[in-house]
Amino acid sequence: MFERLKELVEEVTENSGITEGMTMESNLITDVALDSLQFINLILALEDEYEFEIDFEELDIDEIATVGKLIEYMEGNKK
Q: pTM for the full model?
C-alpha cells in the first residue's frame, strides 16, 4: 500500500521525484508539500482504489496528515 500511495502522490502532483525520501512518518502537507487541492485529489484517488470513504466534516485532517496515519485510517475503514 505504501508503494502505491507513493505512485498516486506522484500522479496527483505530476512530479515523479516528489516522493523521494518519503517515509511512513512524512507529513503529506509539510514534508511532501502537497497543496490542498493535491491532497484532496490524492484522497479521492485512494477512496476509489481502496474502497473507503473519508468524512471530512467529522475527521480532523491532522489525523490523516502523515503517510502512516493515512494508511492506518484506510486499513481501518475499508467498506
A: 0.88
